[in-house]
């Protein structure tokens, strides 16, 4: 568990650096994809899913 959390944090760090750089290349996109796979298999996955579902419900309920 400790190894997967440290890998997630490392990939998250690189993703933030690449996004702030403004130059997202193919190699950078692959790191973002790896971050997604690690997050999906981590213990944080249900919390992330619930947060995204709640946000989608909130946005879908808004009337222009």
Summarize the structure.
The chain has 64 residues and is mainly alpha-helical. It has helices at residues 2-21, 26-40, 45-60. The protein starts with a helix and ends with a helix.
What is the helix fraction of residues, given as a range?
Answer: over 70%
Number of helices: 3
Low-pLDDT segments, ≥5 res: none
From the alpha carbons, calculate the radius of gyration and give it in angstroms: 15 Å
Strand content: under 5%
Going by helix content, strand content and strand pairing, the class is mainly alpha
* Oligomer class: single chain
Average pLDDT rating:
77
What composes the largest sheet? none
Write down the domain tally: 1
- The rounded distance between the terminal residues' Cα atoms is 44 Å
Shape summary: flat
The count of strands amounts to 0
Order of helices and strands: HHH
């Amino acid at each position: 568990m400790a190894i997967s959390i440290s890998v997630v944090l490392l990939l998250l760090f690189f993703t933030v650096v690449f996004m702030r750089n403004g130059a997202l290349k193919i190699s950078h996109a692959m790191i973002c994809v790896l971050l997604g796979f690690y997050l999906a298999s981590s213990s944080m996955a249900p919390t992330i899913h619930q947060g995204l579902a709640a946000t989608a419900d909130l946005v879908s309920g808004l009337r222009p």
